[in-house]
Specification:
The chain is of the alpha/beta class and 374 residues long. It contains ten helices and 23 strands. Helices cover 25% and strands 26% of the residues. The strands form five sheets. Strands 1, 2, 3, 4, 5, 21, 22 and 23 form an eight-stranded mixed sheet that branches. Strands 11-12-13-14-15-16 form a six-stranded parallel sheet. It has a four-stranded antiparallel sheet with strand order 17-18-19-20, with no helix packed on it.
């Protein structure tokens, strides 16, 4: 296959060149005759690596926490249609007896040819702060223990790649120190001050979940955890650029504070891809009006945008340069979660996931593992 005539993301910008694919991998050049049906016309279009979403709960009426194989397939199929080709299904704060079958169902799912790949599991909770639960269920918040984490990981066949922790809660800093050699640790849903967050980074945490949301903000005398992350050069930060969670000026600030360390995420709920209505999240109901999803007390429940929609919003409505937004949805998450050897860029030998966007940044074609989907 040849994707021809497009402006191809190079990591720093865009180059006018053709992209060659042999089997499921990007190639240096075509090794044989390319038939007309194997040519993808990308003239006047942008050619990006397939996007990676490291924080996604659901879509199309399904949630990964349903532990339903058909639901997992529906989410992964929808994401692929949006040009999101690799996922880290994300859990909620729930009892252990529910989390174990959830992670098992994700780990055991066989990905079909039209589904985004599942490349790891993200555990958002239950090791968070009861003071910053957001839309999580406070009844199930608890302290971090290696015993529970090991039981999750055993059920997940080792596929848990990211675990969220509020470092200020009793015992959680010790947990970060012990678990960080086995899995990536993200600071999340926390009331931590600067010193506690800095200690957590020193203990091995290297990531922050949905920056600005469910954490203390920046203050000139009480700098908080965001400033602690700025002071490190090895910490990556997620952000939800859906036009609801974060004001455009703050998204621009985040990209300037964390150059090449920002990660666009969706944090999408089961309502993603559907219209207005009332839906379920972790045992609670949330209501969607337009692009806003809230629980009964008015707190934001998550987003109803794919990470591709967030990329489009970041560029067209928030002033983020396209190359920076693409990097934040491809290269940076791949590097942060340890999958850059296979994904995140268009380079020979890597898995041939690509998306072609038109001039309005709408999806025109998706190539998934070397096969043209759309």
């Amino acid at each position: 296959m040849i994707i021809s005539g497009g402006k191809v993301f190079s990591g720093a910008g865009f180059d006018n060149r053709d992209v060659f694919i042999e089997g499921e991998r990007f190639a240096q050049a075509s090794t044989g005759e390319c038939l007309p049906q194997d040519m993808v016309d990308a003239s006047d279009c942008w050619v990006l690596p397939g996007l990676i979403d490291v924080h996604v709960h659901g879509a199309m009426g399904h949630d990964f926490c349903d532990a339903d194989d058909e639901g997992i397939a529906a989410i992964a199929r929808y994401e692929a249609s949006q040009g999101v080709t690799a996922l880290f299904p994300t859990t909620m704060t729930l009892p252990e007896e529910r989390l174990v079958p959830i992670v098992a169902s994700i780990a055991e799912h066989s990905v079909a040819d039209d589904e985004a790949a599942i490349v790891g599991i993200n555990m958002e909770g239950p090791f968070i702060s009861p003071g910053k639960v957001g839309a999580q269920n406070p009844s199930y918040v608890r302290g971090a223990t290696m015993g529970e984490f090991k039981r999750w990981q055993e059920a997940a066949h080792g596929k848990i790649k990211l675990v969220d922790v509020a470092p200020e809660e009793p015992g959680n800093l010790e947990f970060i120190r012990e678990v960080s050699g086995r899995v990536h640790v993200s600071l999340a849903h926390m009331c931590a001050d600067y010193e506690t967050a800095a200690a957590a980074f020193e203990a091995g945490a290297r990531h922050m979940t949905h920056l600005f949301n469910a954490m203390p903000g920046l203050h000139h005398r009480e700098p908080g955890p965001i400033a602690a992350a700025v002071d490190r050069r090895d910490v990556t930060c997620e952000i939800i650029a859906d036009g609801v969670h974060i004001a455009p000026s703050m998204v621009r600030l985040a990209f300037s504070l964390f150059p090449e360390r920002m990660i666009l995420i969706s944090d999408s709920l089961r309502a993603c891809g559907l219209g207005d209505g009332t839906f379920e999240l972790g045992g609670q109901l949330f209501t969607v009006h337009g692009n806003r999803a809230t629980i009964e007390n008015g707190s934001l429940a998550g987003s109803v945008s794919s990470v591709m929609a967030c990329l489009r919003t970041a560029v067209t409505k928030m002033g983020i340069p396209l190359a920076d937004a693409v990097r934040a949805a491809t290269m940076t998450p791949a590097k942060a979660l340890g999958i850059s050897g296979e994904r995140g860029s268009i380079a020979p030998g890597k898995i041939a996931d690509a998306v072609v966007l038109d001039g309005d940044l709408q999806v025109k074609h998706v190539v998934l593992r070397g096969k043209l989907l759309y």
